[in-house]
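thought: fold this chain, then report.
action: predict
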Amino acid sequence: MTRPALFAPITLGRLSLPNRIVASPMCQYSALEGTPGAWHQMHIGNLAVSGVGLVLLEAAGVSPEGRITPHCLGLYSDENEAALKSIIAGVRTYSSTLIGIQIAHAGRKASSAAPWHGGQLLPAAEGGWKPVAPSAIAHKDGEAAPHALTLDEIAKVRGDFVQAAQRAVRAGIQAIELHAAHGYLLHQFLSPLANQRTDQYGGSLKNRMRLVLEVFDDVRASLPANVPLGIRVSATDWAEGGWDLSGTLELAAHLRERACDWIDVSSGGLSQHQKIELRPGYQLPLAQAVRESSGLPVIGVGLITEPAQAEAAIAEGQADLVALARALLWDPRWPWRAAVALGGELQAPEQYWRCQPQGVTTVFTGARTGGR
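observation:
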């Protein structure tokens, strides 16, 4: 029997994944001063026994002001690092699932309330701070303008990304993804809608790409050779005059020159005027375009909810891996269900080997079903 494409192994850099299913970074808004706690222990542990090939942990702010909300995960202090290291070590006791993390700076979308509290810009009196951005242009109409970063402050941002990546590695993280999508700082520098600078970081496409490529180079130089580095991009702003697919393909070409290990292709998030026609797999054509143009491994995301849909995306060459977010929270055993539907195999904890319903052939690698 032919192995399903979704359950074929793949290598990212020097990291070997047993299948093509990725747990996408999902913000939990449950940290204290950037430090993860009991919720993260449960959340990460659950993802690590889900059967995915790679868990990418939620966007971790590279500085306090780089967090989306006051409750977001961070990697800027010894306390952040020590707590994450403890959680990863605990998960490792029972799971060998590969764990990466996304590192990010929210830019002008920082200092926001948690989604369940409205998600709006928080004033200082409510725990907020002054966001920063390429230019003093607010994310939404009616919001206060962010502070436009100086050259010295841009240099600090670069250093913050490096330090966060190094902290992640010391904490036991096995892969790093830079967040240059969804309207956060690196994406803001790429998009003409947010970046109206007149210095070396603004204006031309080359200048607008400069910070993203500098951060990539800085982080790559700081990582051990066995830790792969990828990036998430928004392939288009879905807004007139904004970042678009042609710019993304040019960026991908530069990333290929730098031996980027994967590109995680998403879209949107920068402009409140975006116009997106949502449908199953709506971002997969963008992923396919990046894959075919760059030749780099690509992760496809966005309303991928059914095993057959994910299998087709891989088998037909739209993406090399697929990442699930909300679908995986709703159904934490989605990879198990996919293995049953497609005839694949995956790893699972020994404690769960006897859980399959009657009539379902085991899909667990190495499983034995004896006992009393």
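thought: worth noting. The chain has ten helices and twelve strands.
final: tokens above.
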